[in-house]
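Slide 14.
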Amino acid sequence: MKRITIDEQTGLVLEGGGMRGVFTCGVLDYLMDNNIRFPYAIGVSAGACNGLSYMSGQRGRAKYSNIDLLEKYNYIGLRHLFKKRNIMDFDLLFHEFPEHILPYDYDAYFASPHRFVMVTTNCVTGEANYFEEKQCRKRVIDIVKASSSLPFVCPVTYVDDVPMLDGGIADSIPLERAMQDGYANNVVVLTRNRGYRKESKDVKIPSFLYRKYPKMREALSRRGALYNAQLDMVERMEDEGLIRVIRPEKPIEVDRMEKNPTKLTALYEEGYACASKSFG
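Slide 15: predicted structure.
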């Protein structure tokens, strides 16, 4: 396979996928180990979280967050849902962690000349919103928290006083946005094997859920079909040689809310190895 080359029109597209994002952590650590930088990256949900550590050049930080920190603090689970109406401990993930446990290097991120876009879903419109923030620390956290706020198990999060949820609802694989932003040659990092598809039938969302946000219910109902259409496009463009894709090579055993450190570490190492094949 021809080695990936990067020029001023090359973008990096990072899918989400919850704890499956440890695959992406492996890819990004390989890039940092080899001083491979993209002029533009766009991330969704876990892809936005992990992408921030790549953009600040903090090698190993995303892996630590997803594996070591999870093992130490057990920040995913029903006890958090019952206690704070959130399946994850957002206070730990978006405040204690970046401020105290392993501080985020905002100075390096803000000084970077490379663009980084984070994707959320607007609860009012049901459409994807795209944010770049290189000045305000609080707004960076607001955006990445919103991008990661899973429907049904996380509360609505606000960015600029607008209610938001997980970017993957409206744009799970923001390849088209990268192209609209002027990046014609893209490397797409997925967290599922080739050939994977969701159940595509529209799911009726009961009206008592997100009662104030009918457009959000519509977006949630067609999420599977939209995701599958994006995967179709990715595989077609890959076959035509228009993009390069780095993905797990076989169906993965890691769940969106996976807590097994052995499984997570294995998937991280697979991500590192797949990146090495693509760039080496």
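Speaker note: The first strand starts at residue 10 and ends at 14.
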